[in-house]
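Anyone able to model this chain together with magnesium ion?
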Amino acid sequence: MAEDCCSFQLISGEGVLNMEGLENFSTNLSQRGVSYAVVAIMGPQGSGKSTLLNKLFQTDFRMMDADDGRNQTTQGIWIAKGIGIEPFTIAIDVEGSDSSERGQDGVTFEKQSALFALAIADIVIINMWCHDIGREHAANRPLLKAVFEAMLRLFRARKTTLLFVLRDQRKTPFERLEVSLRGDIKKIWAEIPKPEAYKGTPLGDFFKVEITALPSYEFEEDKFNDKVDRLRQRFFNSISPGGLAGDRKDVQPASGFALRAEQIWKTIKENKDLDLPAMEVMVATFRCDQIAKETLSGLNSDKAWMALRKDAQARPAPKFRERITSILENTLSQYDMEAIHFKESIRDDKRKELETEALQVLYPAYVAMLQHLRSRALQFFKTKLITEVKRATKAEFEASIDSIIKDTMDKFEKESRDVSISKEWDASAARQNLFSEIETMTVEVKTKINKTRTRENSPNPPCTSPSLPTYLQGDTANDLVGETFDNSPDCEITDDLEGEIADDLADDNFVFENDSLDWGDFILDLVLNIFG
Ligand SMILES: Nc1nc2c(ncn2[C@@H]2O[C@H](COP(=O)(O)OP(=O)(O)O)[C@@H](O)[C@H]2O)c(=O)[nH]1
Ligand SMILES: [Mg+2]
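re: yes, here you go
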């Protein structure tokens, strides 16, 4: 893929960071969590750094043309993805450190880039000429000083791997080179002024030091390529225990890489203290916030959620609780997957906020469900009343109203609890409304019972049917429905009562949505209305 093979200039020679390029570069990286490695190379100008990176990572960093002489080619800091290597490996090519072309600016840039490389890389390759080893005034001394001082400024031991690659090994045996170099490293480390806290700290607390040598690229190309191939193998699984970067600490998630690189460079440029822990908090806060926002906007267009919302508006959605719980859990787990490697306290705080916001998004479906449950409870109440009318005597019926109310409220209570997935999702207002509605109905029912009683006592009872007085005398309502109102031609309902019944039927309290009354239901409703 095109974006995989192309290096680009991350920081120009003037110190300007290319954020847009970095963000584009990071798109393939951001899903990697902490499964990625950053490798930076430093060393003298024209010492074959870009050549080595290109061979190790199959990148395309610009190399100096041998015929042009050893003048500077790599301005600033370049970056590319290593090809064919797992984990995702970022290669960073840093401008030559002993540039005679940049003077004091070069020295400043060298220190800045050393600090940048150490702050961002898991492995820093220090490229040096074999013939410089042990030489008091060789270019590697100021470079090593810059690297060590930079590490002390970082305020933490990241246990970065320093991989020394010694170029153009000829006659001197590797063992001798290694001893000599380790001696140099130790000496330089001892000489560096250190803050009180780090006075007695051995170099090994900050770095893991590895050394290797390469034959001459110019005179022993095959051997050189062989050795580089073997070195490339060491970048496979470099972050696993025992790997090249296996000791690294405080690994920061890939999705914050671009922002972290930007902030680190900005701080270095401003010559401020590079307080990495503080920066990590900042990056974690920003990133977790961003992840939460992205997750929430994903929820709004989530297919399962859109289906449930539609469903809940239309009817009591089946498996509501199960579905809404899984939607919420999916949302949170999406966030978790992305935010997992950020600082726990920050990630958790943001997760709580996300949960609250997600619940707000989901809340309308709960409200719609409460509406359905309310209707269902009213329907239940009505059915119970009718059943009682059929079953009980009038006295029993009156006595059972309270328990019907209780059953109805209990049912609503239970069902509303079943659709709530948060303490904040409270049905008390809906419950109160339902209770008021039922009470109003109950009062009406009772009033109408009394009205009927009055009518019974009046000289002209409204229905001359012989069965009505039977009912009013306390026979079961069932008898009444079965024997008397069951299409009985005997019952002549007076005009007066007919009007009243019609009024009752038109009364909202007794006409429920979705009612489809057949004749039997009609009679029952009638009875209920006579009652009520
Ligand atoms: N003697 C020597 N020359 C090399 C080696 N690797 C690369 N070169 C050459 O050194 C020059 C500078 O290489 P380059 O990779 O651009 O160096 P950089 O400035 O350190 O990135 C080029 O002409 C390379 O062909 C090496 O191992 N030994
Ligand atoms: Mg170069």
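Residues 45-51, 63-64, 66, 73-74, 96, 167-168, 214, 216-218 surround guanosine-5'-diphosphate (ligand 1) (CB under 6 Å).
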